Amino acid sequence: MKMIIITGTSRGIGEQLAMQLLQPGNSLHCISRTGNSRLTEAARQRGCMLTNHQHNLSDVHGLRQLADGLFAEAAATDHLTALYLINNAGQLSPVLPIADATVDDITQNIAVNLLAPMVLTSAFIRHAGKLAVDKRILNISSASAKYVLPSQSCYSTAKSGVDTFSRSMAQEQAGQTHPVKVASVYPGMIDTQMQAEIRAASPEQFPYVDQFIELARQGQLQTAEATAERLIRLLYSEPFGSEPVVEQLAI
Question: Where are the domains of the chain?
């Protein structure tokens, strides 16, 4: 049995990842602020195992408790062959010059985008690091970590941190008897709520808003469904983890 934990499954890429991973032999645990009835119904129809955990990822102390329970359960599970964690949840806002961002804006962004993946990874390794099963962590990063734009300083900083964290963790795991494989991945530009949020910004808030509107008008955005399919292909691939940061997803 594969046990797979995915964050941010209420919509977008996270929902599509969960939907496509709802297969016999997989046990899914979905963490998001709200439950997803579409996933629950799909699991019922397919006869697959899915558990929704409603939790705000900005509450990192509560997340630690949730993660400890999940990974302790995994470590005690009979017939476990693989344990995967997909840190997918993300928050773009604030899309503002940093001088206009509040303390709450900044801390919420960093908590969801960076601290939550770190807390979940810590619990993963603490409880399951010595398990002799296939262990993988897929961190959904962004090209914004490398190609920075104004008014996205919090998001870019957090995603850059995810990349650095993934590189450091890969080095930590390199000498372990049963290492955890990790990859931080740039999924590309996807037609999700996050892109809609960018397009809704004013030119005063975000000077490049017209370019993003034009990209959507020209149909240049990927679908969440196709992106999830490519991410899963990478997650299941033999060389997963050989590169701690993957900037280009294979088509």
Answer: 2-187+224-246
Q: Render pLDDT for 94-135 as a digit per residue (tens, 0 to 9).
A: 999 999 999 999 999 999 999 999 999 999 999 998 999 999
Length of the chain: 251
Tell me how far the alpha carbon of residue 18 is from its chain's centroid.
12
Q: What is the C-alpha separation between 201 and 64, in angstroms, rounded?
A: 34
Task: Give CA–CA dist 8/11, Å, rounded.
Answer: 7
Using only C-alpha atoms, the chain has a radius of gyration, in whole angstroms, of: 18
Phi, psi dihedral angles at 232 (to 5 degrees): -65, -40
For domain 2-187+224-246, give the fold.
Answer: Rossmann fold (3.40.50)
Catalytic residue among 84, 155, 186, 236: 155
Distances (CA, A) of 87 to 2, 13, 226: 16, 11, 18
- Show the CA angle centred on residue 193, arms to residues 244 and 104, nearest 5°: 80
Burial class (CB in 10 A: 0-12, 13-18, 19+), 214: exposed
The SS3 of residue 134 is strand
What Å distances lie between residue 50 and 53, 206, 240, CA to CA?
10, 39, 25
Q: Provide the pLDDT for residue 213.
A: 85
Beta bridge partners of 50: 28
The helix (H) or strand (E) run that includes residue 2 is strand 2-7
Has 155 been annotated as catalytic? Answer: yes
Q: Is the peptide bond before 94 cis (omega within 30 degrees of 0)?
A: yes
